Amino acid sequence: MMKIIDKIKNHGHEHDNAAVEKAAAEAAAQQRREQEQKGPKMHPELLELYTVSDKVLGVGTFATVKEIVEKSTGKKFALKIILKKTLQGKAAMLETEISILSKVRHPNCVSLLELFETDDAVYLITDLAEGGELFDQLLQKGFYTEGDAARLVYEILSGVEYLHKMGIVHRDLKPENLLFADKSENARLMITDFGLSKVLTGGNDVLMTACGTPGYVAPEVLEQIGHGKPVDMWSIGVIAYTLLCGYTPFWGDDQPSLFENIISGQYEYEEEYWKDISDLAKNFIDSLLVPADKRPTATLALSHPWFRTVLEQDMVTPVSPTDSVNLMPGMRKNFNARSTFKKAVRAVGLIRKINANSSDSSFGSGEDMASQQEVTMIGGKGRPSSTLSFHDIVNVAVLSSKGLGLSTTEEDEDGETEGLEKATANLDIKDS
């Protein structure tokens, strides 16, 4: 009898122990989940020197960028938090970016100030460009002249000249990678994002990896015939063109046709938007949008007469006579048209996605939908006539009348799809 009683007691203890272990495991799991939501545990020295704010400046595939404040000075900086687990196969890219950022010290380039590392993450502290992206800030201006555009191009060239002298090719110059230092009227423009950059070990090194952004990439990159510093000069030519009219010089109904146009090097200055732009500005652009061996170096481009003509001697202040033409109305019109077209294409793509699983779908195949969505990647004015049918436009108009807002990216696709399903539930529009 005693043995039976002891067995019952032991069983009770085993049950209690199992319950305790289960509760402890659940508590540990909950703690891990909370820690993951908060992010990796910060480096103690970083927390000793800086106050990390909750203000998130940006979130990407590999990193989150937050605003931080140096405790001793009150000065603000940017903290880029890169989780190591997201870097599988991409470690070399991070090493290159860190190597370049640590060397760069120029007013028109973002620099790396400090680096901290833990078992889980890498922390990069860089200059904080509070003014925002180039075109986002420009569109908020009420008055904007050719001289203003020249100043911005001059600053980009100054930064690129410095990089090229250091043997660094950026390889991804585009408006999104050009940030204003602050929100003042004549804020300094800074080059950022060196993730695709490359350090040349020899003066005539040839790079072969295809990289860059559609619309701003140089033809030799697309042709994969080898490239170097001249790719940055091509990108500056595209940026200068866009700064003067609001759209990029090359376009296409899909990405392959866009690339064909870039390789051909054919573009034009439409009278409606270029009639008030000087011939010197066009000559500067033409000098850059040529084959690689004919492009000037950054140093030579800085001496172009366009800058001497439209800028004061300090090369920072635009010459602003009373009859200076305000380019902003045309700029804003073209940017708004591009944004509207992207939203329309996005709407059509999502509508077709919703109807793709239906056997009597009237919107075309999944392949059609993919080709429509591809247009959202394309720079330039867009020329929508050959990609959206009359009934596509009607559908978008109906959705707009129902108050359905659409983004131009795929980030909120699930939410948009749900809204579209509701909005299109009673639509009976057939595509001819």
Automatic annotation (TrEMBL):
Composition bias, Acidic residues: 409-418
Residue span(s) of domain Protein kinase: 51-307
Binding positions for ATP per the UniProt entry: K84
A GO MF term: protein serine/threonine kinase activity
Record-linked Pfam families: Pkinase
Biased composition (Basic and acidic residues): 31-43
Family annotation (SUPFAM superfamilies): Protein kinase-like (PK-like) (SSF56112)
UniProt-listed InterPro entries: Kinase-like_dom_sf, Prot_kinase_dom, Protein_kinase_ATP_BS, Ser/Thr_kinase_AS
Chain spans, region Disordered: 15-43, 404-432
UniProt record similarity statement: Belongs to the protein kinase superfamily.
Name of the protein: Kinase-like domain-containing protein
Organism: Lobosporangium transversale
